[in-house]
């Protein structure tokens, strides 16, 4: 409860920092729509209370980058900030309403663009190579849509397409076959570090990792680890050309 209340206060502060009183008003409107009118197309980045904190953590990776892709960019908070550092920055999301909002908010930013695209196992290899990929709280969406093995193969394609991966897995549940239980966010750093090391060993280098507390789309408390991963040593198995699921 304490985290929840703190998160709400943080959220108001974050909304105010982002866009002043009008942004706070929009956040309150979204909250009411979500809670009482069952609307689900609310503003994701209006709800996350840790956008600025996460950006401060990520910025050193992006500030020298020439090119950045933000997979599952929602309303483009990070895509815009990456472009503002001078990088070419492309946000991708499959939700029309989110891409629309992202485009409206990036009106005057050079080198910033958004693509509406549903990334799946049939098209993920079309991702171009860039310096940095932001892949934050998307892995479990892929797992839900395609199964763990396919989602993991897609994750490998993503690692292959960048030198630095900013990876945020869901801190409240495990990504693991045949295991559907909830994960205590307090254990998620250890869980995901172990998972990455077991799957990829020396092929990747986890340079930094930190927990970020937030709430889960107007609901419960949550904390996610964010990993900064050097993926230059990772090589994609080119013989695997699609879904590894049987
Ligand atoms: C939980 S939000 C995370 C937003 C942002 N990355 C962040 O961490 O603040 C996940 C986003 O990924 C998008 N998404 C999920 N699956 C996708 C897919 N297969 N292709 C493109 N976008 C996807 C969703 O529409 C949503 O906006």
From TrEMBL:
Keyword entries, A-Z: Methyltransferase, Transferase
Keyword presence, Transferase: yes
GO MF, one annotated term: methyltransferase activity
Tree of life domain: Archaea
Pfam families xref list: Methyltransf_31
Domain Methyltransferase: 64-141
GO biological process: one example: methylation
Protein name: Class I SAM-dependent methyltransferase
Provenance organism: Haloarcula salinisoli
